[in-house]
Amino acid sequence: MLQRENILYIRLQLTRSLSMGNSLLTYSIDKIHSALNTDGFVFLKNFGEKNVVTRIHELGTIIMTTDVTVSSEKRNLVNSSLALDFHTDHHKARYIAWYCYKQTDLGGESKLVDARTSYEQLPEDYKKRLQEIHLFEHKIFDDDSESIPLVTLIDEKPHFYYSFWLVKEEDKQDPAFVAFRKGLANNHFLKLRLEEDDLLIIDNHRILHGRTAIKGSQDRFLKRFWIA
Ligand SMILES: [Fe+2]
Fold first, then answer.
1. What's the CA-to-centroid distance between 209 and ligand 1, angstroms?
2. Is 50 a residue whose pLDDT tops 70?
3. Using CA atoms, how far apart are residues 115 and 2, in angstroms rounded to an integer?
4. Which CATH number is 1-139+146-228's, of 2.40.30.20, 3.60.130.10, 3.40.920.10, 3.30.1360.10?
5. Strand, helix or coil for residue 12
6. 21 vs 52: which has the higher pLDDT
7. Ligand 1 centroid distance, CA of 164 (Å)
8. Per the count of CB atoms within 10 A, which of 8, 19, 59, 216 is most buried?
9. Do 44 and 36 contact (CB within 8 A), yes or no?
10. Distances from the Cα of 112 to the Cαs of 28, 39, 42, 174, in angstroms?
11. Residue 17 has pLDDT above 50, yes or no
């Protein structure tokens, strides 16, 4: 379960020294991987590195980069000022990283909840049923399929794909789905506020994310990276 005291703050100690740099680089990425495996997310305050792409690339292949800003010209949800309910992004993104260039002066907090906690609370027949419930795919890439299971077991671990607005109408009253969603609503969630130079990385197959409405100055600018 996500607990505020469990947030792992790592201040990456970058060095200009090449000899020291390599070892620190390895150590840091290992530590990030370890935290992602254990907690499902890493929140790095004062990342201290403007060339963030180079570091993120060490976690995997960047398959999509998106500017998360408030824009009335773009019609997608990510560029709206609306609050967003808990969801995963595209299933091909194993990890999502957000680097903050600027935060609005009111709202815009990130919200995280551990889907695995809600899943583990369910009886076995409900867990099995969730593997049979397919959500519409949010099609982005050419080879995207029509639908994706809510839960896929890989090495006996559940991997999640979830957005309420992509659930088929006939599945919304399914007892297993209702119980899973109730768990998401009742379990502890984290609310984080990214400030300039903070980096948040989550396991997109486990930690569902959302946000509060972007109010105030609305000059919020995050870079979002999908990492396969
Ligand atoms: Fe998202």
1. 6
2. no
3. 10
4. 3.60.130.10
5. coil
6. 52
7. 12
8. 59
9. no
10. 23, 11, 11, 24
11. no
List the structure tokens of 113. 């909840």
Q: How far apart are CA 85 and CA 101, in angstroms?
A: 23
Decide which of 24 and 71 is more confident: 71
Q: Which of 204, 227, 63, 56 is nearest to 142 (CA)?
A: 63
Cα-to-centroid distance, 84 and ligand 1 (Å): 8
What is the DSSP code (8-state) at residue 66? E
| 174's tokens | 């399914």
**115 vs 216: CA distance, rounded Å:** 31
CB distance 78 to 224 below 8 Å? yes
Predicted confidence at residue 19, as pLDDT, reads: 30
> How high is the pLDDT of residue 38?
87
Residues near 72 by Cβ (< 8 Å), separated by ≥ 6? none
